[in-house]
Amino acid sequence: MSGLNRRNFLATLTTGALATACSSAVQSAQMGADPVFRYCLNTSTISGQDPGLPGYLEIASEAGYDGVELWVRDVKTYLEKGNSAASLKQLITEKGLTVEGAIGFAPWLKDQAGMDQMRTEMEMMKSIGCKRMAAPASGLTADDELDFADAGKKFHQLLNSGNELGIKPCLEFWGTSNVLWNMSQVLAIAAYANHPDVKILADVYHMFRGGSGFETLKMLNGNILELFHMNDYPDSIPRLEQTDGDRVYPGNGAAPMKQILTDLKNMGGEKVLSLELFNKNYWNRDPLTVAKTGLQKMKNLVKEIE
CA–CA separation, 278 vs 248, rounded Å? Predict the structure, then answer.
């Protein structure tokens, strides 16, 4: 091919590629790009009002959430009353919701019995369409030595079980824990797990309370963190004296929310922002109002980074 023909060929190829790219961009704009953030209600936020499982779903739906994060104990109680998993799954669908995650406390890191309990609970939650399962260091105390390599091996086993069942276990740390309280520990366990489907679950309050800080979010690949607990913390109480009950609405405290959401956005992938509060003052208020207020505050914070 002569130089002139080669240039003509490359020009034609480039023009064609550009036209295809522009066409794709126009199609994406017309169809609407997938949102970076989805909004979820962790039912702990209104658990003090005790509306019951159908009530949680009704409130989340009416408030305008995309999904819910349910507690295993609530689902177990509901099913033990004679309700079927199929009918619960149908109710969730009718409310226009997805079950983005589940909160349970099976001691999977402690022994095989705990691992078996975790698998049973994951299977139950999967039966109602749940996508993810929190995997904290439940059952371990300050007297238990956490070996990262051993914990990684167990997490690998748990991830394999999740793959078999079609649900994603997410390694979670609690800032108040004496065993697993910091992002650095979670990342060490994730590295030892050496698994392609590693997921972690992080939380504004727990990152602050456990001294992780928030710069660590910049280190994460978007695939490893899909669900993030949204809340805030006051600056009027010393860090080590704060408890779950001190959490406030996102944006009502001292957390660098703009930085946090920007880092979540920049790491890539869709993120589920789940409002998780345990504030007794909120528990004394109308649950629908609390749910709506929390959702609006999260959306307002996201608008600040768009």
Answer: 8
